[in-house]
Structures
1.
Amino acid sequence: MTTMTTDAVTPAPRAAQEGFWADYGRAWSRTPGSAVYLIAVFVLAMISVSVLAALFWTGVGLLVLIVGLPIIVGSLFVARGFGIADRGLLWLTGLPQIAEPEWNRDKTGTNGFWMVLTRPIRNAHYWLYLVHGMVVNPVISTISFTLTTVWLSVGLGGLTYWFWGVFIPRGDGSDWGRYVADALPWMFGGWSSWAVEVTLYFIAGVIFTFTMPWVLGGLARGHHAVAQGMLGRWRSDDLAAEVRAEAAARGAAVHAEDVALRRLERDIHDGPQQRLVRLQLDLAALERRAESGDGDAAAELAREARSHAKAALDELRALSSGVAPPLLQDRGLAAALSAVAATTPLVVHKDIDPTIDAVTSPEVARTVYFVVAELFTNVVKHAGATAVTVKASLRPSVSGAPSMLDVWVVDDGRGGATYAVGHGLEGLRERVAGLRGTLVVDSPVGGPTSIGVHVPVTQVAP
């Protein structure tokens, strides 16, 4: 029983010991970068406080003149540069990257001279960067630089004192090992002063070197915490970016709908409307022939009128399918995409996840259907392809981001598809942007062409 108990308890401390040394090894791997950062950021802080103090206080002194305001604005931009440099140097420490703040919260169109000139003054980030570069960073960098140099010099110098200490002149107070040996005869009795010095330096070197990863790592984390609070991104920045993205999406949606309506108007004018006018003329001629008793001519006109009526109906159906196809409303996006693929006169490979119907709103489904239908039309008309693949799937959310609906249309055609202002892929991109999505085009000359539609969806199917 005793052996069993010992075997059961022994692995726990061993595992804890292995975990400690593994963590210690990882801390040591980051120590060189932390040391370089702590030294470099001190140099950066001394330069920043000199430059920023001179610029800012000069601007304040000249505020009574107009030239003072641009100088203050310039100092804010310089402070931003120093802050970005500090965040860049933090990369050496291996700590997480600090997100870029939102530098411009002005609404779209507010680009007047004074609005642009005073934009940094109205942004709190610039002022925090100025305080950081002119006050906070110089103070904490001086403290961290002092501790860093102490730990590096005592740690490395103590371990190597046995080598370089022989080159120091002895006597005149340098031979302090003798005083230590006299003060502690029970410990160093009979030791030479050189042996006492080497031993004490070596012990100090071991202690400082052993604790160096924790000390330098802690100083680096302190800098990182300050930078995260003063130089990083705020929650309000994300909200401001969200508002601008919503505004941009609405603008893109309005523009895309306007283009689509104009195109629909043009298509109706050039297609069904002309056929209906011709049909009206044919019916009038048919009426005259019928009254004159010319049965054969009347029958021929009736056949032509019927043909024009059928063609107009087909065109109206084709146009309405780009607006709101009944299949999409009745059976969902997956079935509608399958129907588009089935009516395409090419070899079509389908990989459509039926679960996308549960996560797509009617607006998203209608836009995605229209875009995919237009892409298939482009493939048939312009790509010179023999086969096309359509794939639709749901990409799960990552780190709180919304789930994404991914739809790909890939053909083996000639390639070379590009955006053209006012029509084609540019119009499709605006439609997708109206849903805060993106349209990705990869179409090298010679093919193949891959076009992806990526649209965020707000909820996931249970």
Note: The first strand starts at residue 347 and ends at 352.
2.
Amino acid sequence: MLQDGKIVTNVRLASRDDRDGALELVGKLLTELGGTPPSPADMSPVYDRLIDGGGNGFIAVGEDGNDLVAVCTVSFLQALRTRGRYAIIQEMFVEPEARSTGVGMDVLKFALDHAVANGCQTVELGTPYRGERQIQFYRRAGFTEVGARLRWRAGA
């Protein structure tokens, strides 16, 4: 529901009942980035570990009415450079029709607040290779660029 150009949403931690919708949004993200998403059955165990409160991380969602329109998955890690626990945003997606309405920033700020409440003073993320729009979004939220993100895969 739009109100003054902004979607009126509920932003909260994801629950087991949100699994299908959240996994669908992550699948759309991966497809939009040019990849092939894992099956929901393959993603479900990770989803469960992130929402179980066991200290692995969490998933935040934004909903418009009964529909999930945004998801942000966050993992907790440890590093010497951060003097302990820090967070990394693994996936962040907003439905195209909900972009530029404020819901993405609401979900991101919720995730940042939740990470800080869980002992993280640093939150990191990566953006797509040509992700200028995403970089601008994260800059508006207070992120700064610190270098390229690289990936290595076993067997590749």
Note: Residues 103-117 form the longest helix (15 residues).
3.
Amino acid sequence: MFNITEELRKPGVKRVILDTDTYNEIDDQFAVALAMLAPERIDLACITAAPFHNSRSESYADGMERSYREIGICTGLVNKSHGAKIPPYYRGSTERMPDTDTPVESEAAHKIAETVLAYDGITFIVPIGAITNVASAILMYPEIKEKIGVIWLGGHARWFGGPEFNLQGDVNAANAVFKSGVPVLQFPCSGVVSHLIMEIHELEHFFRGNSPLGDYLCDNVAECKPNGAVSWSRVIWDISTIAGIIDPATYAASVQPRPYVVGDRDRYCAYEFDKYEGTIEHVDHINRDRIISLLINKLRK
């Protein structure tokens, strides 16, 4: 098993698969654009649609389908605004894993494995939602375990614990990935990536009127304005993982015991550390200013 951070610190282009619940919120779109606009560092092999279920979807399957459509909209705007090549993208899982050993069939799971096996080097899989597609690919094609590193935005910092949206989207899938022994670099939400705040006036200043993509991103965020707010902000969670690939100096990580998640989507989630052998990398700190500057420099036309 290799250390993901050590691999990312090596110069050169990194092979990447992005797995995203793009319609769930407003931050996945930034991550898609950032990944497409860093060809000097990221070879974006494909994008897969992750499922989700909240007020923006009628079901887990509907969340995936909406995310699939949003990938098409977002990649099209990046292409229109910047001329970036549109990567292939695929539909993902329509249900959660019933347990840690039973994968969910999907086009995404098969394409993830197919893409990994067709490449001689390491492929970095970057799930920024529920991790169902990735866990299913590992279970169906265990031979990919030696050729991947998983960079996941999910769960809270281990000194926080508690329920987190991506983790609770499929707790069995998260445990399946931890259990598999594959290298994992975890970007936790509360306590770490929660510092990645962008203020609305900052967003409008740099992106409004700059390109069709910039206007679309601003419009998405503007829809989230709290009632009566004059100055407000949003956490742009998902760019943390992509920024970490482009510039590993944007984060600091420590090696920690491999966690086991207790709980499910309806109950409090907690980490335990006595079930799975081995370690993962846990991001303990991010450099907010360095990441936001990277985003602005890449997305401004």
Note: The chain has one domain: 4-299.
